[in-house]
Amino acid sequence: MSWQALLQYAVFPAVVTVLVNPLDAYMARVFQGQKTVVAPLMRPIERLLYKLARVNPQEEMDWKQYAYCFVLFGFASTLVLYLILRVQQFLPWFYRAYMTTPMPRTWP
User: Fold this and answer.
1) 3 and 47 share one domain
2) Distance between CA 94 and CA 100 in Å, rounded?
3) pLDDT score for 6
């Protein structure tokens, strides 16, 4: 194992440990509806997304709505990932030298 890999293994937990408390405080403020530093920037974007998705932020979801959205999001995410994998060879940042397990070009 190279020294770069060992350094990465040491730095990553250190960064996560340092960021736990500030991120925890930020997330607590967000979920309690308090003002945050980025709220003035993000609030208009959030309202736009709510409007596009036809979501009322004051209304809570019941278990049926939650289950439906959970399954729909999982399906949509899987479909998007599959499409990315299928077209990866045509993407501008695709480098064949780094490809270890390419998707087949034709259907089996």
Assistant:
1) yes
2) 12
3) 93
What pLDDT is recorded for position 104?
A: 62
Rg over CA atoms, the chain: 21
- Token look-up 């930020």 returns 26
| Per-chain mean pLDDT for the chain | 88
User: Do residue 4 and residue 52 come from a single domain?
Assistant: yes
DSSP string, the chain: --HHHHHHHHHHHHHHHHHHHHHHHHHHHHHTT---TTHHHHHHHHHHHHHHHT--TTSPP-HHHHHHHHHHHHHHHHHHHHHHHHHGGGSTT--GGG-SSPPPSS--
- Domain ranges, residue 98: 61-108
Position 28: which residue type? A
The whole-angstrom separation of Cα 72 and Cα 79 is 11
Task: Give the per-residue pLDDT at 103.
Answer: 60
pLDDT for 71 beyond 60: yes
pLDDT at position 84 is 87
